[in-house]
Amino acid sequence: MTPKSIVRMGDPVLRRVAEPVADATAPEIRELIADMEAALADAGGIGLAAPQIGVPSRVLIFRVPDARATDHPDDGPCPLTALVNPVLEPLGDEIALGWEGCLSIPGLRGEVPRHLRMRVTATTPDGQPFEAVVGGTRARVLQHEVDHLDGVLYLDRMTDLTRLGFTEEILEAEAERRREATS
């Protein structure tokens, strides 16, 4: 399967509110998820929303690899998971800044405030109800992907645009800070 192209910032589909899915088990939803999985694997990301491949439906996929999991009690590695019509509810007022990139905004990263803990409810592609409490990276990636379903980009959430930059430079600066801290 040739992966579908990921649309980039400027494409109007990224600014639309995605439509709810009537039947999570429909064959076209399974096909959409397969297309999303191929696009995500090709791009090497950890999350993707249907609008990012040009489909304005409320479907997302995400995973948390070992290296990206935090020590938050509601986080941890997570296999590739597909959610249909996800809804997020913040649990508590605790917010943390964290660096985010986006496959639809290649080459840039920004520091984005996000809730540390969320409850997610959704439907699985098998039609089963899904509910979980998530924290750390799981909470961050789900908030990022649900934002895509609502026509919101991470740039819209940033509170300090001086904390936006090219990925290579940001990673280099972070590595330099770590070297200085251990010297």
Automatic annotation (TrEMBL):
GO terms for biological process: translation. The active site is at residue 145. Its cofactor is Fe(2+). Signal peptide: none annotated. Removes the formyl group from the N-terminal Met of newly synthesized proteins. Requires at least a dipeptide for an efficient rate of reaction. N-terminal L-methionine is a prerequisite for activity but the enzyme has broad specificity at other positions. Its EC number is 3.5.1.88. InterPro entries: Peptide_deformylase (IPR023635), Peptide_deformylase_sf (IPR036821). Belongs to the polypeptide deformylase family. Binds 1 Fe(2+) ion. This is Peptide deformylase. The gene is def. Gene3D superfamilies: Peptide deformylase. It comes from the Bacteria. It comes from Thalassobaculum fulvum. Keywords: Hydrolase, Iron, Metal-binding, Protein biosynthesis. GO terms for molecular function: metal ion binding; peptide deformylase activity. It catalyses: N-terminal N-formyl-L-methionyl-[peptide] + H2O = N-terminal L-methionyl-[peptide] + formate. NCBIfam families: pept_deformyl, PRK00150.1-3. It is an enzyme of class 3 (hydrolase). Fe cation binds at residues 102, 144, 148.
